[in-house]
Amino acid sequence: MVSPDRPLLRTLQGEAVWPPPIWLMRQAGRYLPEYKVTRATAGQFLDLCLSPDHAVEVTLQPLRRYAFDGSIMFSDILMVPHGLGQTVWFAEGEGPKLLPVRTDEALAALDLAGFHQRVGPVYDIVRRLRSQIPGTTTLIGFAGAPWTVATYMIEGGSSRSYETTKSLMWQNPDWFQRLIDLIVETTVAYLSAQVSAGADVLQLFDSWASALGGPAFDRWVIDPNRRIVKALKAQHPTVPVICFPRAAGVQYQRFADQVPCAGLSLDPTVPLDWARDTLGPKCLQGNLDPILLVAGGEALMTEVRRIGDAMRGHPFVFNLGHGILPNTPLDHVAALVAEVRSW
Predict the structure, then answer these.
(1) Is residue 67 situated within a structural domain?
(2) pTM above 0.85, yes or no
(3) Residue 118 is among the residues annotated as catalytic for this protein
(4) Rounded to whole angstroms, how far apart are CA atoms 303 and 325?
């Protein structure tokens, strides 16, 4: 039995805790002035992610302000490609860049043997956080899901159309399966090591799940997520996993039926009454539009209360439907937390 002062863990075990626990995706980041100060001293973004001193500090910053129920370690979903030996960097104003993996030779060059050494600072970050966050706060580790990570590895960065990735997927599915299998194996090892270092909960981000439909969604989104969750449950049966097949639409239902995750994170387009009645008994998480948090005012409070009314009596974690935006006013976050706590 989870201690009553750990509401996020209780909720992910199926208890309808009220008021619901609250944390925000990307709660440590550019909307905080103290983050900008730390970021300026850390060098490149990848250096920030791999510096235990800096990463622990920015992870703790939102907890000091808002006392969230969950603390997600500061990192990036591209730690898996980095750990495999792919060249990863972040171009100022452009986002992530990677030396693309598109050939047999490039795939063969990826090195699982040296993975844990390359990402070792991440495990140190988790260990330090476990000793420094409040006892009532749940520590969340995470990774990108295989389809989303594969798009970055093949495209060499972000993409709108995923043209190169989809072409490889359809023209050479055996090659693509080998890449996905490698990402699955690596992600299981990576997340398992985060648990060993002190993570209480894990989240898988399939940020580009909406790019696929039908059998492709089943093969490249549902199946890899299911394999990872089942492997983690076998190794760490008491550690809940939250999955986030972002913008999957009605495919959320197939995902929920086939992936044995404890929690399902919802983007802002998902009707909550449908989710509550269709996707249960999983714990649901979400799904406030991050732009509403920027806008604030009565529009924000009306939507926050509507979400609360819809989810009362169901295991629910209040969160955004995607990451917090850099121009979010601090007082809007404070108002949101105060409102949810008032329930």
Answers:
(1) yes
(2) yes
(3) no
(4) 18
Structure confidence by residue, pLDDT tens digits, 31-58: 999 999 999 999 899 999 999 999 999 9
The active-site residue out of 31, 66, 123, 152 is 152
Q: Which domain holds residue 234?
A: 7-242
Tokens of 57: 């500090």
What is the CATH classification number for the domain harbouring 179? 3.20.20.210
Tell me whether residue 140 is in a domain. yes
Q: What are the CA-CA distances from residue 334 to residues 287, 309, 331 (Å)?
A: 17, 20, 5
User: CA–CA distance from 116 to each of 79, 188, 275, 278 (Å)?
Assistant: 11, 12, 38, 39
Confirm whether 312 is a catalytic residue.
Answer: no
Active site residue 30: yes
The active-site residue, picked from 76, 200, 267, 289, is: 76
Q: Where are the alpha helices (H) located in 236-329, listed in sequence order?
A: 251-258, 272-278, 290-295, 297-311
* 226 tagged catalytic: no
Count the neighbouring beta carbons within 10 Å of the beta carbon of residue 189: 18
